[in-house]
Amino acid sequence: MYNFLPVAYFENRFIPFENAKLSIATHALHYGTGAFGGLRGIPDPQNSQQILLFRLDRHGQRLAQSAKFLNFDLSAEQIQSAIVDFVQKNQPQVPFYIRPFIYTSDLGITPRLHDIEKSFFIYGIELGDYLSPDGVRCRFSSWYRQEDRSLPLRGKISGAYITSSLAKTEAVASGFDESIFLNTQGKISEASGMNIFVVRNGKIFTPGVEQDILEGITRDSIIQIARDMGYEVVERPVDKSELLIADEAFLSGTAAKVTPIKQIENYHLPLERPITDRLKDKITGITENRDVDYQDWVFKIPL
């Protein structure tokens, strides 16, 4: 299903991907005591001798913050340095996705985060479009988004993604592409692994951080870009009914990039999506290093 990059970073060294293996007794496998990141990279369309990574610094910062929830001190600088070395070792020739992962690597049966070994690995896969660029059909999940008071939602904690997995399978099994979570207050939260935006009357709305969302890096980028383009962006609670009558709606994420929503349940959204299309074109140009105003968001790695 996936074409993995040939070299992985595992147990503090670079080895062939197929040799990076874990014991079935690994603590994180049983208790979800891991945290991960995800970022995209592409060969530079203008320079075949370098790779472009989108907002590497922010991805490093977020994973370092996630590590704190696991009582693991791993700096953003260490993460960033390892990712750069990883890319140079692999020298990918097509668009790809990097998965850095922090986890409790001890072999034990006690659920805990103290007095236990932690480790860090990185692998990658070749990756084109994660969702259809033409748009996706969504349903509301019967599962609710977790609350921050019961799970640290400011981190990408691996155990939390059981809910995303349940929701995604529920959506696909019932004939849809993607699932949308409500939070426990009945407001729109996010999709199975993406943030969500709604366009109404020329304004852009997105659930705020108080709605139990993941603080998405692509989400943050879209908000900044849209405001720079002159759009009003409001972070606030979004009602279910508001989404159903939106002029436009789209998902955002590292894997999903900007993906329009064309249907929610039995409600069809307009096929004309001028704001979504403008934002999608803009962020594509930024990630390909074609936009001089956002070049500090693009990290260049020489090969």
Describe this structure in words.
This protein is of the alpha+beta class and 303 residues long. It has two domains: 7-126, 2-Layer Sandwich (D-amino Acid Aminotransferase, Chain A, domain 1); 136-287, Alpha-Beta Barrel (D-amino Acid Aminotransferase, Chain A, domain 2), CATH 3.20.10. It has helices spanning 27-31, 56-69, 76-90, 161-173, 217-228, 240-244, 274-287; strands at 7-10, 13-16, 34-36, 39-43, 50-54, 96-104, 118-126, 136-144, 178-182, 188-191, 195-200, 203-206, 233-235, 248-253, 257-264, 267-268, 298-302. Strand 12 (203-206), helix 5 and strand 13 (233-235) form a beta-alpha-beta unit. The longest helix has 15 residues, at 76-90. The chain is globular. It starts with 6 loop residues before the first strand and ends with a strand.
End-to-end Cα distance:
27 Å
Multimeric state: single chain
Q: Report strand %.
A: 25-35%
Number of helices: 7
CATH class of the largest domain: Alpha Beta
Spans with pLDDT under 50 lasting ≥5 residues? none
Main beta sheet, described? Answer: 9 strands, mixed
* Order of secondary-structure elements: EEHEEEHHEEEHEEEEHEHEEEHE
| DSSP E strands, number | 17
Task: Name the CATH superfamily assignment of the largest domain.
Answer: D-amino Acid Aminotransferase, subunit A, domain 2
Shape label? globular
- Work out the helicity level: 25-40%
CATH topology label of the largest domain: D-amino Acid Aminotransferase, Chain A, domain 2
User: Rg from C-alpha positions?
Assistant: 19 Å
